[in-house]
Structure formats: C-alpha cells, structure tokens
Amino acid sequence: MTDSTTASLSGRVAIVTGGARGIGAAIARSLLSDGATVAITGLADDRERAATLTKSLPADAAGRLSFIQSDVGEYADCERTAAEVLAARGSIDILVNNAGITQDKTIRKMSTDQWHAVIRVNLTGPFFMTKAVFGQMLEQKRGRIVNMSSVVGLAGNFGQANYAASKAGLLGLTKTTALEGAASNVTANAVAPGFVGTDMVAAMPPAAVEAAIKSTPVKRLAEPDEIARVVRFLVDDRSGYLTGAVVSVNGGWYM
Ligand code: NAI
Question: Does the pLDDT at position 2 exceed 80?
Fold first, then answer.
C-alpha cells in the first residue's frame, strides 16, 4: 500500500491574503495544483498581478482561482471577503495570513505612524481575517490556519522594531487560535521564513541583501516555493495533530 505525505485538496476552499505575488503567489499555485479552490486577496495594485498569475496557470487551475480586492487592515473588508467566498464556494477550509509589509527605521527614527502601519497590516490583519472565518470553521469542524511570521519575530532585527514586534505578536495569536480551535479540528500554525527572494527583499539595499546571504549558513535566499511547500503540508487534512507550532524555514540563520 502506498501512503503519500499529503492528501488531495480537491473540494477544499482556501483564502491566501496578499496572494498575487511573492510567497503568497507560490502558496496559491501550490494549493491550486493539488486541487483546492483559492481566493487571493490584495490591494488595488494586486489586481493586475492576479490577472498575470491566472494567465500563467493551466486552464483547470485558473478556473479555481479568484481575486478579491480587500485590505486586511479593514475589518469590513475581511468580513466581506469571507462572505463572498462562502457565498461563491460554500465553505472556507484554509486561511493563509500571508499579507505583510515593512517600514524599516531604527527606533529613534521610526515615526508612530510607521509603527502603527506595520502592526495594522501584519498583526491586526491576521486577527481580523481569523475572526472573519473562525466561526464558520468551528461550526464545520474543519479548518487550517497558517500565519506567515518571520525569523525576525524570533530573533529581532536592527531597524525593524515594528516588523519584528508584529511577527512576534503573530506567534501569540497563532497559539491562542490553536487552543480555541483544537476541539473543533481547526489547527493554527506559524511559518517563520528567513530571507526569501521576493519583491520585499528586492526593496532592501543591495548591501543588506548581501549581508543576509553571507550570514545564512546555506548561503542563498530561499525560493518562495520552499516556503509554500511547508504551508502545503500544514494545511493538509492529515496534519490535524500539528497545531500551535512555529516552523522555521531559514537556511540555518537562527536555530
Ligand atoms: P511581497 O511584498 O512580495 O507581497 C506581499 C503582498 O501582500 C503584496 O501583493 C501586497 O500588495 C499585499 N499586501 C500588502 N498590504 C496588504 C493589505 N493591507 N491587505 C492585503 N494585501 C496586502 O511580500 P513577500 O516577500 O511575498 O512576503 C509575504 C509574507 O511573508 C509577508 O507577511 C512577509 O512579512 C513574510 N516574510 C517574508 C520574507 C522575505 O524575505 N520575503 C521573510 C519572512 C517573512
């Protein structure tokens, strides 16, 4: 008898926030290729990117992908997103809280607006999206939630007080979600990537990217797919005993 690591995601419905590019797009592709129906969310700029992503997919997968313009920092947007997906697809089985931003400055130079902006998207956003889908997941006694944290949430990082605090805060949210979902087969886990080759890292000064690669034992950036495959495992039907965990995918940068 063969036993594959993961079961098909056929019939499962997923929401991936910030799914039009980078890590989120890699996650969306992976879930789609295993049969899931996927709604990606994003800001106005992401609509075009979502269209490009859709065009790059095989027709069958493209038909299972939709884009919803929705700001994770606005609770009304999160509620509308959940309601639209439920109405169109009948359930929400998987939530990947992936959308995130940076606004780096040392604490002395960081404005209070920069603090609030990053906390709003990276920490309040995942709470809002979780709150919007959680009741339905508890009632259907099936759900998989993954929060995209960061190695920086574990280790801290010079010039990233807002980002590091948001990503550390996500770990508390993840563990509490895991406790509140456990009796209803709703799991919650966090993934903590190291430096990944996306637009977010491309926006860093080249010297900082070089330094990140140098200080990473595997001596390269991660590919978005290397993060997506961990998410794919966590959202599997067979991963019901895996909850409240923080999975590091950082090339050995922090152990
Ligand atoms: P990215 O910047 O390439 O993509 C983020 C996506 O989220 C974009 O499409 C953006 O428009 C969208 N987004 C931004 N604000 C939003 C909002 N308020 N509502 C909805 N969507 C919004 O980022 P990347 O690199 O793919 O990162 C994805 C996640 O992984 C983020 O949470 C990031 O903090 C985290 N991460 C990234 C690492 C990296 O090295 N790239 C390392 C560790 C964690």
Answer: no
